[in-house]
Amino acid sequence: QVQLVESGGGLVQPGGSLRLSCAASGSISSFLSMGWFRQAPGKQRELVARITTGGSTNYVDSVKGRFAISRDNAKNTVYLQMNSLKPEDTAVYYCNAVRKVVAGLTNDWGQGTQVTVSS
């Protein structure tokens, strides 16, 4: 199993920025994809951004133009740069990795980091 450790969450005012980091215990270059999900109170967990091994990215419409996902294979770390934050971005953010295993595909999850956007 791969360990994923998120960091970088916190309290920020509307319009501010945060950068989340997700450090993996394994080589992320071997993962099919890595992504960031978020879950707000009373809501379902949703995909925020994903980046594949080949570098392709996709974003939920609500963050396009504001968030950017990137990866540093040498550091086995994935980042989520969040700009122009809004109160509706408040949620627990989870790092996710999709890997191939003998039985098919598996998902690994981090413990989550809280992001609160409030004045």
What does this entry show, briefly?
With 119 residues, the protein is mainly beta.
Uncertain residue segments: none
Radius of gyration from CA coordinates: 14 Å
Please identify the structural class as seen in this structure: mainly beta
Quaternary structure classification: single chain
Strand content: over 45%
- Overall shape: globular
**Helical proportion, percent range:** under 10%
Mean pLDDT: 96
The N- to C-terminal Cα distance equals: 39 Å
Per DSSP, the total helix count is 0
Number of strands: 11
Helix and strand sequence: EEEEEEEEEEE
Most strands sheet:
7 strands, mixed
Set down the secondary structure blueprint:
Layout: E1 4-7, E2 10-12, E3 18-24, E4 33-39, E5 46-52, E6 57-59, E7 67-72, E8 77-82, E9 91-101, E10 104-109, E11 113-117
Parallel strand pairs: 2-11
Antiparallel strand pairs: 1-3, 3-8, 4-5, 4-9, 5-6, 7-8, 9-10, 9-11
What would the keywords be for this entry?
four-stranded antiparallel sheet; mainly beta; globular; about 120 residues
